[in-house]
Backbone:
């Protein structure tokens, strides 16, 4: 049976191209997560994405560029923390989104890219940029909370690490699902600790 991605899409100009690109990027992330950056082949990407091999070569003649773009696509999920006016809720929602994203192949590819010192400098830079995007999103929300008096002045990096660290631990171990109750407990403990240990002026 022919793949649906190979059918013409006259009713939605450009729609097929965007869909094919998304499938290729997702397939690349999955293969990198499974085999490492040096281990995947264009033929496997095309097969997993359900497209012809020429579609991969035409869009990404350089394999490194394909890996970088697959990693950078992940940044779209990590760039911000919501601002509903309720800090606790925003942080809990962020941890739930983080846990969901960590279960995707792209997250495993990102982890491999940040740890593999022998891999391409461009790939490592892309992985580092993604982590910086996530840290910046958290930092903006923390700054707002401090300005509004929801939090005392706090080290933004440490605050983000205290929140996200347990999520990585639970999800990466794979012992049990990460739940909203987990997220709420983490946020409550971190907020209470920050507020209790910061000297009052």
Residues:
């Amino acid at each position: 049976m022919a793949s649906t991605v190979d059918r013409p899409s006259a009713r939605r100009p450009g729609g097929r191209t965007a869909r094919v690109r998304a499938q290729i990027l997702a397939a690349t992330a999955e293969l990198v997560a499974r085999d490492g950056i040096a281990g995947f082949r264009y033929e496997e990407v095309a097969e997993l994405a359900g497209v012809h091999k020429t579609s991969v070569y035409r869009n990404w003649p350089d394999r490194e560029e394909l890996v970088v773009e697959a990693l950078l696509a992940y940044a779209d999920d990590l760039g911000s923390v919501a601002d509903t006016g309720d800090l606790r809720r925003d942080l809990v929602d962020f941890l739930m989104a983080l846990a969901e994203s960590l279960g995707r192949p792209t997250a495993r590819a990102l982890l491999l890219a940040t740890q593999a010192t022998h891999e391409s400098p461009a790939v490592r830079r892309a992985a580092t940029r993604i982590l910086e995007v996530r840290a910046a999103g958290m930092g903006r929300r923390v700054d707002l909370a401090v300005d509004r008096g929801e939090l005392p002045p706090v080290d933004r990096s440490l605050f983000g690490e205290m929140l996200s660290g347990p999520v990585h631990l639970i999800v990466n171990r794979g012992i049990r699902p990460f739940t909203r109750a987990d997220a709420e407990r983490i946020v409550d403990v971190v907020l209470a600790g920050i507020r209790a240990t910061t000297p009052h002026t």
